[in-house]
Write a structure and sequence with these properties.
With 154 residues, this protein is α+β, with helices and mostly antiparallel strands. It contains two helices and four strands.
């Protein structure tokens, strides 16, 4: 007896199909002097932005852009390094109800993409001669809810 594959055309489909770097910059403006101090006290200025755009009927590009400037507080906020990264992925979103699309794009997609973005940034720091740069986890649900609240208040 053979099993028949039953097509269920209205089942929601959500998956990451391709992940890639759109833009990348690593600056180490004070090398080699920045490597001489033995006891550094890093401080991070961090900015994160999310973006998305429709590619076709079922595909969306979602991007995470980060800028992280790491300073040495013990050396008058001397710049240790700067990472600028736009990391993106193409997601297949098929049969997702229209009222859920924005939440999927703002929460679920970044949740899937962020660990890879974090790894790229960490490896850049290591390749630049520093300790791994480990970004804290991001609460994308809270960011989405805050943006929704601000939009309603406007």
């Amino acid at each position: 007896m053979t099993e028949e594959k039953v097509e269920q055309p209205n089942i929601p489909v959500f998956r990451m199909q391709k992940i890639y770097i759109k833009d990348l910059s690593f600056e180490n403006p004070n090398a080699p002097q920045i490597f001489l101090p033995q006891a550094q006290e890093p401080k991070v200025d961090f900015n994160l932005q999310l973006g998305n755009k429709k590619v076709d009927d079922d595909h969306y590009e979602v991007s995470i852009s980060i800028t992280a400037k790491v300073l040495d507080q013990k050396a008058d906020d001397t710049v240790m390094f700067v990472v600028e990264l736009e990391h993106a992925a193409i997601f297949l979103l098929k049969n997702i109800p229209a009222e859920h699309i924005q939440r999927v794009l703002a929460v679920d997609c970044p949740l899937m993409l962020f660990p890879f973005t974090r790894q790229v940034a960490s490896q850049l720091a290591v390749d630049g001669g520093f300790m791994p740069f480990l970004m804290e986890p991001i609460n994308f649900v809270a960011l989405y809810e805050k943006a929704q609240k601000q939009q309603k208040d406007s």
